[in-house]
Amino acid sequence: MLFKRCGFPVVIAVLFVFSTLVFQSENLKATTSWSEEYDAAQGTLHNVVTENAEANYFGEGYVAGWNGDGQAVDIQVNVPRDDKYTLVFNYSGAAGSATRYLEVDGEMVVDQVRFSGTGSWADWQTTYVKDVFLTAGENTITLGFDSTTGSRNWLNYDSLLVKEASSEDVVEWGLKEEADRAQQSTYENFWNDNSHMFNNQYPHNENNDQFHYWWQAHGIDILIDRYERSGDETYLDQAGILYEGIKTRNGGDIRNDFYDDMLWMALALQRLHLHTDNPEYEQAVHTLWEDIKTGWSDEYGGGIAWNKFQLDYKNTPSNAPAVILAARLYEQYGNQEDLEWAKKIYNWHKNTLVDPTNGLVWDGINRTGDGNIDKSWEFTYNQGVYIGASVKLFEITGDQQYLDAAIQTAETTKERFTNHNGIIYEGGTGDGGLFKGILTRYVAELVKTDQSQIELAEWIVTNAQSVWNQTKTEPEILFGGTWEGTLSKPVELSQQLSGVMLMEHAVTLEPVIFESVYKELATQVDTLQTDGDLKKSVAKKLSNRVRQVEHHYNKGNDKQALKHLAEFEKHLQKGKEKGHVTELAYEKLQLLVDKILN
């Protein structure tokens, strides 16, 4: 018999016996969230096997041995009514990211459902597909492998949860409070009063003797992010304490053997100096920059080395951030030599480690001593720092080629590193835990420089809403290696910092999205009235609401702006019901409203 379990929150368990009657009650939908979980090992299996070696699986086992064409799992599900449902897949993937196609009753729904790598086969995580239409009664859910649709890599498939959409799944617009709570949680759960640094993970199972110099640099950065958003100088004070802790742990010297690590420290301290005018931070930046420049050589045409013991290995992490630092220093001091360094490093990097066809950024050259470029190493981190370098040079020079390069790489990154839900799928542990956060920092810089990049802004905010949905019900606000599905503990500091960066930069992008929405609403209302798709009486009401939205949002009254946007939606819906709004007009305007009100 197929192993499954049902969930009827609010309704007492006895009602399970009368599930047929419950299914027929439309009124119950408003007070319950129906769900049912199915054991994948008890589905109809096509050329796959089952195992039960790993702990904590659901049901009688899980599907394994799965990495070839013609392999698939069919699960018969039974739902109470015709509706859109969310399908949640519980899985593990120690071999890295994997993809499978999804069908319902033989019809393709998603050709590539992406499963992020989980690090080990014992680490069970989830991904989901929203808004899948199922008919009342039985439906066959197929997850299968077909290399022609992009299926790849090994996967263990444990269970399928089918559930109705719930208000709990929606994160309301406005992430300021959430970003504040993320910062507070990071301090409460990671800060070490003895070392004056952040611990390496939470819970503190790991020995903190290991010193992650560059993780701590990003710790300074998130504290400055919080200060810039709030004006609360407490965060600058804490950043200063962290700097002292880092310097002490580093033997009293701020320098390091890794050029990329020193760059992250210099970038953080340059920001800290700008806000505090503390000469010690200024001197530390100059000390680091002078040391970093010694990593440049003409081998392989130029570039800064990765570390001081392998000077012939040049990579993106040691070059793109160097462009950002040199450009910032030029902005701050006006030293022409710094701008020349920025351009020289950028040109070498672009000509050597960037795919000219799509802007994808490769990792490095000559890592193994054979002169080869690591084109198969694709990381969000590398894309982010190149975007940041390009944006900074555009801001300084006004040369469109730099902005075009940033946009091309950002668009390629969004396409290449995003899963079926629009979530950045790259999993991360250790140093890799920071990669996604670094990407979001510099995508945000691009959007703030070119506010026409609304889709990129929405991408970052979607990721922030997803990761908040993941952690909001947890006792602590924590961010793991994946930004959707199950939160896995322990959480490393690198992962937590990445999540905080995401939240902070999503907050900075929300005004860009909101402004674009109300401006487009105003334009569309006028156009649709002129075209006869809106009656004048309705258009007048809608236009008034848009003006109120703009007025309150520009005064910082976010809640009032949202209230007027909700009123806009009510007028729109009433107009449609009365036949005063055409279907075309309704769809266009509702699509815009949904960007804010979900």
Automatic annotation (TrEMBL):
<dbReference type="InterPro" id="IPR005198">
    <property type="entry name" value="Glyco_hydro_76"/>
</dbReference>
<dbReference type="InterPro" id="IPR005084">
    <property type="entry name" value="CBM6"/>
</dbReference>
<dbReference type="InterPro" id="IPR053169">
    <property type="entry name" value="MUG_Protein"/>
</dbReference>
<dbReference type="InterPro" id="IPR054470">
    <property type="entry name" value="FIMAH_dom"/>
</dbReference>
<dbReference type="Pfam" id="PF03663">
    <property type="entry name" value="Glyco_hydro_76"/>
</dbReference>
<dbReference type="Pfam" id="PF16990">
    <property type="entry name" value="CBM_35"/>
</dbReference>
<feature type="domain" description="CBM6">
    <location>
        <begin position="36"/>
        <end position="163"/>
    </location>
</feature>
<dbReference type="GO" id="GO:0005975">
    <property type="term" value="P:carbohydrate metabolic process"/>
</dbReference>
<dbReference type="GO" id="GO:0030246">
    <property type="term" value="F:carbohydrate binding"/>
</dbReference>
<protein>
    <submittedName>
        <fullName>Predicted alpha-1,6-mannanase, GH76 family</fullName>
    </submittedName>
</protein>
<dbReference type="InterPro" id="IPR008979">
    <property type="entry name" value="Galactose-bd-like_sf"/>
</dbReference>
<dbReference type="Pfam" id="PF22888">
    <property type="entry name" value="FIMAH"/>
</dbReference>
<dbReference type="InterPro" id="IPR008928">
    <property type="entry name" value="6-hairpin_glycosidase_sf"/>
</dbReference>
